[in-house]
Structure formats: C-alpha cells, structure tokens
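Dear H.,

Thanks for agreeing to be a second pair of eyes. The structure we're designing against is below in token form, covering all 185 positions.
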C-alpha cells in the first residue's frame, strides 16, 4: 500500500487528495476542521485500501499533530505534500519527518512571498528528502490580479507530485506569477 500525508489537504489541496486516492493511495489528511473530500471513485474500486482519512490536528501542536498522523498512516509515508504557513512550517515539518519512509518524496507548497521581494527561489524545508517546491502566485485578470483558484493550485501541485513520483530531479514549480508580487491581490 502506498501511503501519503497531505498537510493542508482539506482546502486548496483537496483536489490533490482526491486524485491520489483515485490513483490507489492511502491518504492521511490532518486538519483543524473536517472538510469532506468528494472522491468520485469508479464502482470498480471495490474495498481496497485506498481512502482519504481525515484526522483532527493543529499546526500549533506539532507533536500531537505527528502522533495522530502516525496512527492514521499505519506505516511510513511514501509521499508528503505540505502546505504549512511560515510561522508553523519548521516545527510541523520537523515533527512529521520521522513518519517518512527512506526515499520518500516531498512536495512542499509555498506562497508567493517565499520568492518575493528578491524574486529568488526558496530553499526546501527538508533538504534530506528529494523535494519538488511549488510556489503559488497570482493571475493577471484584466486590469487587476486575482489569487489562484483551488483547481489551478491542485493541478499545479499534482504536476509536481507526478514529477516527484517519476524520480525526476527536484525543481521549483511556479504556478501563476510570483516575481512581480508586490503584496497585492
């Protein structure tokens, strides 16, 4: 059974969770609030091990967060997809690192401010694991700008997940514009 831990998976990454489950993954989704994820599995899916399991967990309690995720995973995670706010990132990712299998791949999602104002590329939070970084930006819309939709984010993150699972070299994926980010949207 392939296991994935998706941190931040009940909102903008819910499409990633649904796709992983469709692809046969056992996915654990820790979150403060329950949010059902429509899976739309084909009838032929049967009663196999693929499922999305929500567990109540809070970034402000990284030890408890990791303990609950560990129990729900039922073994080491082969994949970590993580969207964690800057204030909690270091502690949460340090807490879940022991849950990862040797050779597990990581897809780390960061906000546009990770590249601003200098326009550079952020460094992965878990350098000991192959990491595909995803930097979220904004979209120009007529005279203004808008945030990316959950669908646009999920599609971009899934591209990074597929790249990671195909053992492609780590890379920074930019979704939308980030280099000219000026704190406005």
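And this is the sequence the design step returned. I haven't edited it by hand at all.
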């Amino acid at each position: 059974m392939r296991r994935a831990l998706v941190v931040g998976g009940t909102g903008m990454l819910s499409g990633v969770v649904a796709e992983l489950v469709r692809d046969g993954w056992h996915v654990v989704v820790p979150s403060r609030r329950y949010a059902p994820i429509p899976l739309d599995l084909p009838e032929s899916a049967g009663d196999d091990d693929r499922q999305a399991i929500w567990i109540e967990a809070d970034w402000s309690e990284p030890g408890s967060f990791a303990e609950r995720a560990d129990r729900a995973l039922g073994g080491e995670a082969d994949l970590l997809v993580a969207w964690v706010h800057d204030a909690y990132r270091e502690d949460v990712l340090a807490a879940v690192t022991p849950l990862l299998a040797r050779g597990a791949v990581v897809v780390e999602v960061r906000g546009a401010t990770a590249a601003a104002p200098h326009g550079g590329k952020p460094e992965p939070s878990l350098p000991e694991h192959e990491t595909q970084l995803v930097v979220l930006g904004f979209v120009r819309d007529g005279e203004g700008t808008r945030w990316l939709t959950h669908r646009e984010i999920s599609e971009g993150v899934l591209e990074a997940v597929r790249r990671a699972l195909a053992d492609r070299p780590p890379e920074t994926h930019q979704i939308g514009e980030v280099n000219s980010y000026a704190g406005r949207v």
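Two observations from my side: The helical segments are 14-22, 62-73, 86-96, 150-165. Confidence is low (pLDDT under 50) at residues 181-185.

Warmly,
E.
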